[in-house]
Here is the input.
Amino acid sequence: MVPTVHLRASVALEVIPFGLAFYDLLMAAEIMGVPDRYRRYDAEEPIDACPNCGQSSRLRRHDRRVVWPKITHNLAPLFDPYAMEEVWECLLCKKSMIIVRTFEAGENQEREPVAASILYPVLPPKTLQDEAPAAVTSLYREASVAENAGALRGAAALYRAAVEQLLTDLGIPDGKLGRRIEQLADRGVDVDVVTSFHEARLLGNWSLHDGVEFSPEEVSDVAELIVEATEELYVIPAKREEMRAARAARRTKDTPSTSG
Ligand SMILES: [Zn+2]
Here is the structure.
């Protein structure tokens, strides 16, 4: 049943040079409840932060087409390298986003993309809190630009560089990164922070030396871990210091003449 419908869709595309006929056939197949795995309205996925509304939401795929090496609405995956453009809609804010996924050549039709990037809306690079050292923030922002462009290995290597810069800022001497991170623990830094730095280190290691591919989620998680670590190392201490100063100022004000 399914192959029949699919075959007819392909024939329609070849014989009738009007895209609408192809769409109509696909739509008819969907309305009839035919489980065509290449149909357009077939996927729903969770997203941590929608690029439009920033909320944790779900996305529904509304349209997709192969855009490279040739543009076509025939959705059967190619064996050659190809790029797929997809339009997803956020179920909360109802706004759309365009994603391009790229696939390398493969022996199986069904395979994972090697990169996925959001084409629109244009994402601003992520940044660190104001209290973080400027040199660390600079590397972090550049990593985020690479991440937004789908250059995941570059992003992982730059996030690792941000961690190294942060250790330098904390006065930890040069050396093997793993050992430097361990010195954080020796200095009483929270075990969660140390663990997250090790994760950023390992991700950067894999990206540079082993050519391992990882998912956008893995890179995004490490970016988030660095934010948590800088919160612990810079933001919370700065707030504590602020409150301590405020308390001291109040005490001075309350007892102006006796404190000498
Ligand atoms: Zn949204």
